[in-house]
């Protein structure tokens, strides 16, 4: 289902999607770590690449990709994901579950959201 409106909020680093049945806000970080690009999703089955350190990522541009999707360019240079209307709606409806899953994957991998976080854990 295509939204009625799509608004980019650069200051809040988010994308707002307005549908007939409600409004959703997707943070840039969530959009980036769940990018539908082959770079992130991988070329086969499974969870794909664990993207980390994107706490401060923003969105540079949003443009239509035909009549079926959006192409989102992030300020970290990533711009290869084509977000179909169906996939965006899925992200909206499953935002909390996807976010919790992402945080758990980060924890299991010993990674963080902050790009300035030390990769080395010091034992004191």
From TrEMBL:
The keyword Metal-binding applies. InterPro entries: GBBH-like_N (IPR010376), GBBH-like_N_sf (IPR038492). Gene3D superfamilies: 3.30.2020.30. It comes from the Bacteria. Keywords: Iron, Metal-binding. GO terms for molecular function: metal ion binding. Residues 7-89 form the Gamma-butyrobetaine hydroxylase-like N-terminal domain. This is Gamma-butyrobetaine hydroxylase-like N-terminal domain-containing protein. It comes from Microbulbifer aggregans. The lineage of its organism: Bacteria, Pseudomonadati, Pseudomonadota, Gammaproteobacteria, Cellvibrionales.
């Amino acid at each position: 289902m295509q939204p009625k409106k799509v608004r980019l909020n650069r200051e809040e680093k988010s994308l707002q999607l307005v549908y007939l049945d409600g409004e959703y806000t997707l943070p840039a970080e969530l959009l980036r770590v769940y990018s539908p690009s082959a770079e992130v999703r991988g070329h086969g089955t499974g969870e794909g690449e664990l993207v980390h350190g994107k706490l401060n990522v923003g969105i540079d541009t949003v443009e239509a990709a035909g009549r079926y999707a959006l192409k989102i360019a992030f300020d970290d240079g990533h711009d290869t994901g084509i977000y179909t209307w169906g996939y965006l709606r899925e992200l909206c409806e499953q935002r909390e579950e996807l976010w919790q899953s992402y945080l758990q994957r980060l924890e299991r991998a010993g990674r963080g959201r902050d790009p300035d976080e030390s990769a080395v854990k010091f034992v004191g």
